Amino acid sequence: MKKDEMIALLQQQISFLQQQLREANRKADALLKEVASLRNLLERKSEEEAKQKRVIKGLAKISQNKSEKQPSAPASQEAVPGQPSEKKERAHTNNGAKRKQHLEVEVVEENVDPEDPRFNKDLARLYKTRDVIRYELIPMRFIKKIYHVRTYTQNDEYFSDKAPDAPFLNSQYDGSFIAGMAQLRYMYAMPVERIVKFFNDNGFDMDKGTAHGLLRKTERLFENLYHVLGDAIKEDTYIAGDETYHRVLVDTKNKNGKGIKKAYVWVVTAVNTGLVYYFYHDGSRREDIILDYIKGYRGAFQSDGFSPYRKMAKWLLRLACFQHVKRKFLDCGDDFDTKVIVRLANYIYHQDHKHIIGVDGWTERDHYKWRQQYALPVMRIIRKKLERMAADKSLLPKTEKYDAVHYMLNEWDGLMNIFTRGDYHLDNNLVERLNRYISLSRRNSLFFGSHTGARRAAMFYSLACSCRLQGVNFFKYISDIINKAAAMPPRTPLSKYRDLLPDRWKQKNIAQE
Fold first, then answer.
1. Per-residue pLDDT, 50
2. Nearest in space to 312 (alpha carbons), one of 214, 413, 385, 421
3. Residue 457 to residue 242: CA distance in whole angstroms
4. What is the mean pLDDT for each group of 10 consecutive residues in the chain (513 residues)?
5. Three-state SS at 405
6. Among candidates 438, 452, 475, which has minimal Cα distance to 189?
7. φ/ψ (deg, to 5) at 301
8. 434-473 b/e with 16+ CB inside 10 Å = b?
């Protein structure tokens, strides 16, 4: 490069940097003005509060002065000699906070009478009653319910009935017992060993093999239900997907001499229906697993930039995730250009959250128009900045900034697709939050005992997280459907199981209530 060309290039860069500096100074001046105005508002507010305190203090002094007190109104009835006058009790407060009423819990009422030996209830009359509330906790209760099935004879005929069916043949465990185990294991991430110990500590002697056996039988019982759940997800027009990992015990040992493998669990969520489907194929992360599942689907699919997800754009509407994009730029540290991209992404979130569909009559169509108004101009600015950064020859490959810029450029079409409707989410956080159940299990349980155990966990997590999205109590749900599923004949059409999934189960129970 010649000397004149280098000088021209340097002058061009200096001019660009001066322009950026002027823009930064302008923003700094605007922020300083805003800070000054806020300071003035705070000072005025402090003066008003001080004035109000002085007024309140003066009124308190006046009320304490006997000469300033107004004479009290005469009592409507004269006090009866020898009878105690009723005193007003000071209301007990919780530092100004309202106490929760807890209307959802069982209420037990008990009368508390004086224990003074001079007190005779027959001679006394009730003067007043004061209610005092205490919340008590009863640890897990185990009930051994014995049904005495009686047989009668009448006119040379035998009359008898039968006890309620158990979910499994030759089993004495009710559906509620298995539901309690499933709730502790898959909602609260307690390992089976800890559940057994918890049961033993609360008065029920149980071994680990029995606990595993009950969960294993439940998995087989729910096999058709689990299959129907996977199909029901694809009935929704909007799906979000992701994958996470757990550890599983395997026969082959790794380089550290341990038989533990990092295994992946796939998850898809029907955003509108509120159903979740986890599935596991020997811990593999091969792209054909998710592509085979989603094959034939024609709705919208939201995910991060993992390559199998990007391939779906050939036959469906793929939506990207702003949070994954923003995280890439946050990892770049104090770089000025990347901070600008983060601020612009935050601006999009801020504007999008100004309105909520369904609140104050705000519709999906209204939100679509709002997005066209605020988002498209910002996205054009982001695109120009990305192209300028990508064209910068000083941007070295395999750096965090290089990865962030090209990741967002690769995801650009998916990001723009978000704004084609008003109800598409800006990110994939719905699925990310559901994956926390797997993360919690990973910390508490350390590993699944086998690939079979991992598949069983995927089935239970599917039902548990579906209940979570539906606002359904997982314990009540499992207690109910386990007996219903057990009562279904072997060749029951799969469509009958659809009514047992949490969304329709919830609708049916609301209608009954």
1. 75
2. 413
3. 17
4. 73 82 83 80 78 72 54 48 54 64 86 90 89 86 92 89 89 93 94 94 92 95 96 97 94 79 96 97 96 95 96 96 96 93 96 95 96 96 96 93 96 97 96 94 88 96 97 95 92 93 93 73
5. helix
6. 438
7. -130, 125
8. bbebbeebbeebebbeebebbbbbbbbbbbbbbbbbbebe
Question: In the prediction, which pLDDT does 464 show?
Answer: 96
Q: Are strands 260-270 and 238-249 parallel, antiparallel or unpaired?
A: antiparallel
Report how far residue 375's alpha carbon sits from residue 293's, in angstroms, rounded to the nearest whole number: 33
Pairing of strands 300-302, 238-249: parallel
**Which residue, among 348, 356, 350, has the nearest Cα to 372 in the 3D structure?**
348
Q: Which long-range contacts (CB under 8 A, 24 or more apart) does 350-357 make?
A: 351/375, 352/426, 357/422, 357/423
Distance from C-alpha of 280 to C-alpha of 248, rounded to nearest angstrom: 12
Please name the residues in contact with 219: beta carbons below 8 A apart, sequence gap of 6 or more. Answer: 455, 456, 459, 460
CA–CA gap between residue 277 and residue 401 (Å, rounded): 35
Residue 35 CB neighbour total at 10 angstroms: 10
Say which amino acid occupies 174.
D
Rg (CA), the chain: 34
Name the residue type at position 370. Answer: W
Distance between CA atoms of residues 326 and 408, nearest Å: 9
Crossing angle for the helix pair 474-487 and 502-512, nearest 10 degrees? 100
The beta strands (E) that lie in 207-360 are given as: 238-249, 260-270, 275-279, 300-302, 317-319
- Inter-CA distances, 324 with 306, 385, 407, Å: 11, 18, 9
> Is residue 326 classed exposed, middle or buried when 0-12, 13-18 and 19+ CB atoms within 10 A define those classes?
buried
Instruction: Identify residue 502 by its one-letter amino acid code.
Output: P
Pairing of strands 317-319, 300-302: parallel
Question: Quick one: DSSP state of residue 315?
Answer: T
Question: Hunting for tokens 């029995």 — which residue is that?
Answer: 210
Cβ neighbourhood burial of 511 (10 Å; 0-12, 13-18, 19+): exposed
d(C-alpha 211, C-alpha 195), whole Å: 9
**How far apart are alpha carbons 251 and 129 in whole angstroms?**
69
- Strand ordering across the sheet containing 238-249: 275-279, 260-270, 238-249, 300-302, 317-319
Q: Which amino acid does the sequence have at 246?
A: H
Q: How many residues does the chain have?
A: 513
Instruction: Please state the three-class secondary structure of 79-99 as a single string.
Output: CCCCCCCCCCCCCCCECCECC
Show the tokens assigned to 131.
Answer: 């209610």
Candidates 424, 335, 333; CA nearest to 385 is 335
Q: Name the 3-class secondary structure at 311.
A: helix
Phi/psi for 304 (5° steps) reads -85, -165
Give the list of residues 6+ apart from residue 422 with CB closer than 8 angstroms, or none. 357, 363, 364, 365, 366, 367, 368, 369, 370, 371
